[in-house]
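Review session, final week

We close the course with one last complete record, chosen because it touches almost every idea we covered. It is Putative Ig domain-containing protein, a protein from Arcanobacterium phocae with 849 residues. Go through it on your own first, then we will talk.
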Amino acid sequence: MITKKLQQVWAFVLALVLMLVALSGGLLTTRFAHAEENAQAQSVTVNFDFDSLAGKGNFADHVWVYQWENSGNFTTSAQRISKDKKYVTIKPLGAETTVNFIVYIGNFKGSNIDVWNRFSNGELAQTDDINATPGSSYNVTYDNLHKDAQHLPRPLADNAIYTPTFDVPSEVEQGQTFSLPAPKFVSLNGVELTSPANGVAKFEIISNTNGLNATIDTNGIVTIHPDYTITQGTHTVSIKVTYKDGTFDTVGINFPIVAAKIMELIYGPHPISVEQGKTVTVTANAKLENLLVNMPQGSMFSLTSAPHSAIKINPTTGEITVAPAIDAQTGTYKLHVKATYKGNLIAQGDAIVIITPQEESSASPSAAWRFSYDKLTVTQNETQSVDVTASLFGKKTSLPHDITFSTGENTHKWVTVDSKTGTVTAKPDEFVAAQDYTFKMVVTHLDDTVTLAPVTITVTKAPAGDLDTTAWKFSYNKLTVAQNESQSVNVTASLFGKKSSLPAGITFTPGTDMPSWITVDPKTGKVTATPDEYVAAQDHTFTVAVTHLNGEVTTVPVKITITKADNAPELKSQLWKLSYADTTVQQLKSASVDLTATLFGKERALPRAVTFAKGADMPSWITVDPKTGEVTANPDEYVAAQDYEFTVVVTHLDGEVTTVPVKITITKADNAPELKSQLWKLSYADTTVQQLKSASVDLTATLFGKERALPRAVTFAKGADMPSWVMVDEKTGTITVKPSEYVELKDYVFHVVVTHLDGKTEKVAVKIKVIEADPETTYPLTPLKPGKHTIPALELTPAQPNAKPQAPKPVETPSTGLAKTGISLTGLAGLALISTLTGATIARRRHAN
């Protein structure tokens, strides 16, 4: 009875234990799989090349890895490498830090290995003992299955195990900062790691586009800050990833760079209202997509036009300062501001400036006073005065106490004012133009309030002063202006060596040589230069045309020096487009054609350091000005009447040499002679050529003893005596010879058939001497010794350049499939044992009964 109960208890306990084992096996299967992924650094990966077993029976079903422990419990373990999975991972046994194993063909029974012989011979199909460091990987082939050190497989280099992969970058705007996360490292088994199993990799940038400003930190995070000047498109950064074992991978990351959005410049308050005699400064703020942003360091600001002399802009900060004088012109002025960075537009905006009259405070006693002058007429070389009239509340009165008078800033020297009485005195000499003038006298009150009192003065001509305006001499001081800025210079007038005001009635206009970036005030003659960044930084000389009262026109030179702006682009040679207009000239006459230079589609003057020279194809009847590039043709009566195309050689500031074509059509002069065929003397120079080599000889044509170009309609052809190894250019007559090694060594005389314009033909002889080719020296001079055939220790299949071994693809086995359902093989075995015990118990009961 006791035995029966013990059996029942034992069966129950055993069944419970087996059920727990089964459940734990199913629940922990996924955890073990995850642990295997995280344990790459503690494992050794063994890959087997099953293609190397082709034609070797069932060897592919019997590939095993056997490992053992050299200390402690001396445990052993074996795993079969399936031809589907193609690899296994093994860890150190016990407390050991390395893995000891072999790879073999055979079986594993219990704790014993059964190693088969190699196919078709008696040698065991196994590797020699391998001691591996965790984190390493081995590729094993059938050729490694020899029990000797010579065939022992070697651990793979880190760059053969891992592939660093970066995310694909999104679009990055010019001027913006963008960071790319650190790369992942994908192992041969397809496991994605944050770093290689055997240590941290090092990163460095080995190539980088200028202006991309790429950096990489120790974690592999790539950061770029592309300049505003960088070209749009894809820019590649090459990263070198160096592993712990010294091997490395090179990864190229393509960053798509797109145009920066144009920021909006905001000036406030809007509009900017400034009273005469006061100063207001407003700062610029930049917005991008309705958010305030900072402008890049080095941004440059400019006004597209200068509508008023009182309005200035700080080129480095963008601040607008409005400081109108007390007598400044009032009105509303619209400004357009542009901001550039290294020549590229990055922001723009508008501002409105209103200059208002000075307000008179009703609280000030001076506000009630009004001052005026009657019109004054004075003759040249005479003196006249006019007193000031003071009124208070509309009634004439004497001057208030302690007020002072002074001349306004535009008053001429021949006009003075008494500081106490306000009396204006005019004393024009004979050089003051006879015309009307209006000046403003400045009245300063006791409370420091300033008002203006205008005075009109008419200057009449002196009886003896019939001076022609052409007697005046005009000149300009030298003007210096930086690119992207504006500067002006006034004309200076003098008469008989003495400075004078401008005579009335003359007008000023730009000379024909003056470019569009210069303007001339037609009344005052003031010259204003506003060069952009593409105007050459050099000295320029232009002319201003002066039209006098009698209709005569004279010119005045003005010298302007352009200095380079800090952000001006380099005007390299490839930016210029140079051309000549087609020109036609008759024999015995002369014609010239100027060079046309354009920059970004706009006609501009070339920098003066650019030089010009005749091309090699240009004849003696054409000359080229070395400074201006002007081409002059002077054909005589013997130059063929036809179309020609020659080249002019241009040497740029950066040393680059380019050529510019020029087309010239020569027409026949009325008295030009007929250039009949018999007038031409044609000949070839004798030439010598080696077998297997090539040589050319040009035709020489002379007319009246002078070497000249033949008319282009003349044609050339091979004579009947000319062999296949001689060629003739049908247009130029150039002969090219290329004899083979079989051409006889001797002197030859052949003939070229020339067809002239008048239809006549002639034969021109050419002498060619063929000499022996150089001795052949490409074959060995002494017999080569027989080499020793060496069998390689390990036969390897050459890999493609930079190719990675194919990562093994894990394949589900029946056991892993069951694990995903929560049932393991252990659980199935437990259920089977429970069924057996239950059956045995029932049988005993029946037997006992």
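Two points worth writing down before the exam:
The longest helix spans residues 2-38.
The chain has four helices and 68 strands.
Good luck, everyone.
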